[in-house]
Amino acid sequence: MVAEASIVSLHAAPEGGVPKPAVPYLHVTVNGCVGDRQRDLKHHGGPTRALCIWSREVLLALRDEGHPVRPGDVGENVLVQGLPFSELAAGDVLELGAVRARLTGPAPPCRTIAAAFTSGSFRSIDAKRHPDLTRWYAEVVVEGELHPGDAVVLRKAEPTGDR
User: Residue 126: what pLDDT?
Assistant: First the structure.
């Protein structure tokens, strides 16, 4: 029996930056998470990067490799478990509790998360090198409130028919 995917924890940084502390809930809008701020709006935030989603399984695998990474350290807003990150693609839709979000692309890692990795090797979650370990950005299609324990459902994007 396959375990259902769910939200493990939620993170927001009112002052911006990382790590993002855990919060008991997140109110999510098309412009992002209420109470979460980004310092670098050129590379973070905005409607196509309203949410940053990451995998608990990836976090635990990195910890097993000796990285000191903890929830919130890499700037994720939503940490999920049971979601097959190796199968995710831009255009896929995630139903996160009451929120519906469409994946827009991998979230490129930057130096600000280096402390979460042994020897500062933050590129350990770079989609170009390790697509199964990356975080994902998403745009919000349906706004709402998220809570730890909310179910997560993956809806794969429809093929475009350009074959």
Answer: 84
